[in-house]
Structure formats: structure tokens, C-alpha cells
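pls design
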């Protein structure tokens, strides 16, 4: 395989960026854009999505991370993603407070993405309780975070949305049905299809 075509790890990109390699530094930030896009969508309450653009949150986060890159002391992918999430979370909270006003109780109903350790994965919620997740469902927690995010970005809008609402915001199917203006059975079928599409997208990466 041509060395230029080999995948470079986040750890390698971090090391090169610290050595002053501008191209690898840009590659480092671009590698995390899709991941931050998913995190941002999960952070913004559904009722505020017409007012808050997740892409704007991501861009602001990347600009601040570029500015403060010298302050980042970690070396692993998990530490890097956690640092980016922290910056994005502060930005998202500021924007949500701006639009939500005094409606704090409603804003707090939105559940953020879990804060995993270096070797953990995005953790979904499963329904009904007590049932073991199927292999298709397990993909969301067993694949790497960046890989899952890249695959999610390639899905159709409704497939991506139902996974974000169910697996990341941990909403009940009844609430998802109301938000997506579909019946509960339709949403459950959409979710199952979306997970299969996600698995297929990950397999192609």
C-alpha cells in the first residue's frame, strides 16, 4: 500500500501538529469535524434547532480549539475528543441560554452525549429495558467515535435524526414520534433501518 494512502491516527496527527506541521494540524481538525457535528446536533434542543445552526457551533469550536491548541496537553484520541467536546459544550450552553431565556427546566430535558474515557465508545440507550441489544444496535457503541460520526454523516437526514434522538439524546420512541411527526411503529421501523444503514456505512469506511 502506498504510504500516502495509509490511515493516520489521531495520536500521530497530534504529534505532528505539535511539531509545527501545519498540514497535519489542519488534517487533525478536519478529521473531527463530522464527530463534532453529531455532538452539536445532540446538544441543541429540538425546539431550538430552527434558531441554532449546529454547523456554526462546530465552526466556533474549531476556531477556539485552533486558538488554544497550545493549551491542550493530552496525547490520546480520547483526550483530544474530550477537550473538543468541552469547548463545544460551553459554546452550546451559551447559545441555548441565549435563546431559551428563563425556560431552564425545558432546556435541561435535553440529555447530552456521554463523556467517555479514552477507550470507550458512544453509548446508546436501548428499548425495551432488559433486552440485549442486537448486533445492529451494538454498532453504535462498539465502533470508534470518529468512525461512527463519519458514517452517520453519510446517512439520509431522517436516518441520522432518528439515531441522534434515540441513541444520543436517549429519548423515548413516543417523544421521537411526536418530534418527527410519525407514528411510534413507523419510528421504530425507521430506527431499525437506520441502524442497518449505519452498519453498512461503517463497513464501507
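designed seq:
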Amino acid at each position: 500500500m502506498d504510504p500516502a494512502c495509509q490511515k493516520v491516527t489521531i495520536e500521530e496527527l497530534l504529534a505532528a501538529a505539535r511539531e509545527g506541521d501545519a498540514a497535519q494540524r489542519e488534517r487533525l481538525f478536519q478529521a473531527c469535524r463530522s464527530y463534532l457535528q453529531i455532538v452539536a446536533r445532540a446538544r441543541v434542543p429540538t425546539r431550538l434547532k430552527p434558531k441554532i445552526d449546529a454547523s456554526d457551533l462546530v465552526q466556533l469550536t474549531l476556531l477556539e480549539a485552533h486558538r488554544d491548541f497550545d493549551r491542550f496537553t493530552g496525547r490520546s484520541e480520547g483526550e483530544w475528543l474530550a477537550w473538543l467536546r468541552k469547548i463545544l459544550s460551553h459554546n452550546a450552553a451559551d447559545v441555548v441560554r441565549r435563546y431559551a431565556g428563563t425556560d431552564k427546566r425545558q432546556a435541561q430535558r435535553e440529555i447530552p452525549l456521554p463523556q467517555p474515557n479514552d477507550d470507550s465508545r458512544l453509548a446508546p440507550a436501548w428499548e425495551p429495558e432488559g433486552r440485549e441489544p442486537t448486533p445492529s444496535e451494538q454498532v453504535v457503541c462498539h465502533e470508534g467515535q470518529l468512525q461512527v460520526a463519519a458514517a452517520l454523516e453519510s446517512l439520509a437526514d431522517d436516518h441520522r435524526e432518528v439515531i441522534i434522538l434515540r441513541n444520543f439524546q436517549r429519548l423515548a420512541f413516543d417523544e421521537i414520534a411526536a418530534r418527527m411527526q410519525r407514528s411510534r411503529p413507523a419510528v421504530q421501523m425507521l430506527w431499525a433501518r437506520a441502524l442497518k444503514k449505519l452498519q453498512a456505512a461503517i463497513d464501507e469506511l
